[in-house]
Amino acid sequence: MISGKTAVVLLSGGIDSAVASAIAQKTNHELFGLSFDYGQRHRFELEAAQKVARGLGLDKHVIFPLNLAQFGGSALLGSGEVPKGRTEREISSGIPVTYVPGRNLIFLAIAVAWAEILNADAVVIGAHTADYSGYPDCRPEFMDAFQRAANLATKAGTERRLIRIWPPLINMGKAEIIKTGAELGVDFSLTFSCYDPDAQGRACGLCDSCLIRKKGFEQAGMADPTIYQ
To answer: What is the secondary structure of 158-210 as a DSSP string?
Structure first.
């Protein structure tokens, strides 16, 4: 059991989770990183998560095996192709085929379980809604509802030692997130965003995630360190 300010951070290897982790670290939380090997086609993000964890100086980083690919139901799990070259209007319309059913619901539940064991006071997630999210499990309403569920479902909650579900980026746009990360010293060259990289781990540059990343850096007035195909 850990004492003091402690947080479990969901670390995907992307920009958002890296910046959310840096924000939590800035508030003097000891961070425990949690990533998931869930059968995603873009497994290079796990290598990035390890690099980000080392860059932040995390004492412990767990990569949790959770094979959601056996269910399918998402382009990120091999069910169909990852969309490429979509317009901003197309990206912002509807729920994309890259949505993984129940992903944040499952990830947060496991993170809360570990947080309770660690006696941690928060679970940090990099979810946000401002940039074409399209994912229902990134909405503030979901975060609020999961907070209530976590309060009811845990021993910590019944003892009024609440585990805070903390999405520090929830109302930020991508450019603002990047600027915030830069101010906090996040090394964006360690992060990875692409949904469909090649065998060498080079980003495709055309999937929704790549396009949003490119635009974010452009609007932030910063160079994107990503290696694209």
So the answer is: HTT---EEE-TTTT--HHHHHHHHHHTT--GGG----SS--TT--B-S-BHHH
